[in-house]
Amino acid sequence: MPYEYIFSKKAVIIGCLISTTCLLYFLFVNSLQQLNGSIYSPVRVEHFHRKQDEFLIDDPRGSSKVKLDVSHAFITSIYYYPTSKSLGSNAVAFNMAIDQRSNQMRNHTFNVIGTNSSISLFSIATSQAEGVGNCRYTTLMGRINTVENLEKLEIESNGVTVEVPFKMARYSAPKPVIICISPQFVAEQWQIFMMHVNAANRFGGHLHVYLTSIIESYFDLMKVYEREGYLTLDYWLRMKLTSTESPYFDPNSNIEWRNQAGAETDCLLQYKEAAEYIAFFDMDDILFPKNYPTYLEEFNAILAANPGTNYMFYGRREHEFVKAPTLSEFSFVDLVASLRSSRVVKRGKVVVRPEAYNSTWIHYSKHVTFMTRANVSSPTLVHVQLPVEKNGKRKNKSRDMWKISFGKLIETIREDDIKAIEDDIYRIKNLSSTMTLASNLPSSDFYLPIVFKCYYDAFYGPAFDHKPGGFGCPNADFCQLPQRDDYKCIHSDAKYYSGPHMKPVTYHFTTDSSWSKDIGCYQ
């Protein structure tokens, strides 16, 4: 986590007596302090290395309302669609996190130049910002239609241009139902993953998993499943602004939940033309079809019974289950037998028919916030957030903050499905690649109670349990995560770039994403 080194005004004043240069520097820093109402930090530590950054404004809790001259934007992804059922021909969709407090981003437009081997076309992109209003950064999706056979894409403002990378959207999907899993960081609960990935495969779903950081042996287990065709792993990157000529706020600590909305947008844009249905779930949200053998059949039946509806909303019922400490002891039969349900169904997740969404993306939390009913024929998600140990005790006491009572399993899981999933797990466990990594999987939780308490202190306690402190932007980027000698993490990384100084928006982006063993276990 970043550490802030703050130069006191007294020290700076003494330095100013030494040189005129220091005096100018002090005046610049002091002016920013007056603007922000908080301390301006000229030096910080990013992950494992120090990085000089004179323009970063220290606002770890996201409370500043300062308007800057420039809104900085971190481009998460850009997709090109030669053809699209809803976006039209030669469409381009932009997905970015952008400062919405410095400049108004409602109905924001920006200039785009698309070029192929023969012509360039100037277009004005329209956009829609969706997200939490009390976060400085929001997710913004923009779109244009441009030249065919697109080779080069630029954003232009006041005569200044920046070339930005783009990817081809998918036109085929591994399965008709794609389950987009929200970004995982310091991921360690491989048991929940095993439960989800094998169940999804049984019912015709394919997981698309975004990773920021994950215990190395758990990552190796995911790679086994990826090779077997059960899932696709994708990078979820820290947002870094490598070079700026104007002040900015850290996007990671000033956006809703690590830009989770950006990941959902990316997944929708990737599979929009390829999948029949896209679900936006967390790893611990597991769906068992109620009336049909597959997700596809169930979703088709639900929408057929609800004409004009293009989404399904699923509530989340809390469950507990006994967690196997080792892979050799992991059994789906035993896991289901240990499942216990709570009576309360909380706000949940959504499944969409992507072809129904044309000019803009749909962020599922909008449905969660404003939807007043769920499809009555839909089952609830089995939410297995906090398992118990095999001896019946909880090493992780963090769940005691929420008083939840559990009883007999309410959801129905068919016996033939349980047997089929158990057989599939047995096959995976006996692959040579799985047996090689099995003994290295963590047997108990380390990061979960730390992260859970951070989230509780930052948002859930004040929001739902009337704890003191209030809450603003839902974010726990300030959470301090200790490093371990026994378990190392794989972390997403990339080459980071900053475009030239542009007004009203300066753009930052990445290329060449990769997995790194050198960064550590961080958000």
From TrEMBL:
Pfam families for the chain: Glyco_transf_92
Enzyme Commission number(s) of this protein: 2.4.1.-
Localisation: Membrane
Name of the top EC class for this enzyme: transferase
Domain of life: Eukaryota
An example molecular function term from Gene Ontology annotations: glycosyltransferase activity
Keyword Transferase appears in the UniProt entry: yes
TM ranges: 12-32
Membrane topology reported for the UniProt record: Single-pass membrane protein
GO cellular component: membrane
Main location (coarse class): membrane
Keyword set, alphabetical order: Glycosyltransferase, Membrane, Transferase, Transmembrane, Transmembrane helix
UniProt cross-references to InterPro entries, sorted A to Z: Glyco_transf_92, GTase_92
Family to which the UniProt record says this protein belongs: Belongs to the glycosyltransferase 92 family.
Protein name in the entry: Glycosyltransferase family 92 protein
